[in-house]
Design a protein that fits this description.
Elements lengths: L7 H9 L3 H23 L2 H20 L9 H20 L8 E2 L5 E2 L15 H15 L4 H11 L5 H8 L3 H22 L6
Helix pairs in contact: 1-2, 2-3, 2-4, 3-4, 4-7, 6-8, 7-8
Amino acid sequence: MSIQSLTDHELVALYLKGNEKGLETLLQRHKSKLFSSILVIVKDRALAEDVFQDTFLKVIQTLKKGQYNEEGKFLPWIYRISHNLIIDHFRRIKKMPPASIYYNEEGEEIHPLDKVSDTKDVYQTGDESSKRKNNVRDLIHMLPADQREVVIMRTYYDMSFKEIADMTNVSINTSLGRMRYALINLKKMIEERKVEVSF
């Protein structure tokens, strides 16, 4: 049986028996999603890389001490570790990251909703489409921080509500609720400001 076909729990057990391939496979399996989830919060590639490295150092230390007991829940567990490290970092510097700067995996500054509405309505010019997309972005940045975070994680990073809940250390219902209120608030702002938007 291929090592790739093993579950996370089986790979942890393999690593604890002394097989480094267990941890290596876990890292390969989850690194992209974990790194993206860190980056969406810290908004700085170098800091995201530091948190990512620290997360896996903490994972290794915890496993070697025999303190891992999250059977079958490896990904939520490492999300919690990374989230706690991020909170610790911002507590130390007493500053939260700016709300409007995001980076892709290559470290280039992007807007999280750049991928929204890649296909233009046949009756729309490029300028109109761009303006409508910018309207959406502006409105999203007016949302309360917790609602904005859920919208960005869901829209740009395509994270499930379970992953968002794990990452932000809340229940799935809370994540769903934040998304629902975000959509209600966006609709209200669109109607109040009479802006044309493009999703």
